[in-house]
Amino acid sequence: MLVPHERQFVFDCKVCSQASFALDEDKFKRRQLRHLLTRSKFGAITFLLMHFNPREQTKGIQTAETWAFPVYAEHPLWQAFDRAETKRITRAVRSAMPVEHAARWEK
């Protein structure tokens, strides 16, 4: 039995050592994202927790970063993905979002 005002939290965790994470990868798109979006319709707080490992580049070092992207149908990232405007999550995609659309943790 649920007590009034209780909410379910559902999240999917990903680690990315590449420059970006492909959102249109079959398993993620068909199973994991669909599950998160479905749960959000029932009032669950859902998000994608994305950790980017540090990367050495000729321009310098990108530090490790961890971001939480809320997952619900009206979120700008998932709307852009649905319209095929966004196919990957990169650090640049995140930096273009308003702060309230993602949370960040650093070491």
UniProtKB/TrEMBL annotation:
One of its GO terms (cellular component) is cytoplasm. One of its GO terms (molecular function) is hydrolase activity. GO terms for biological process: DNA recombination; DNA repair. Gene3D superfamilies: 3.40.1350.10. Signal peptide: none annotated. This is Uncharacterized protein. It comes from Pirellula staleyi (strain ATCC 27377 / DSM 6068 / ICPB 4128).
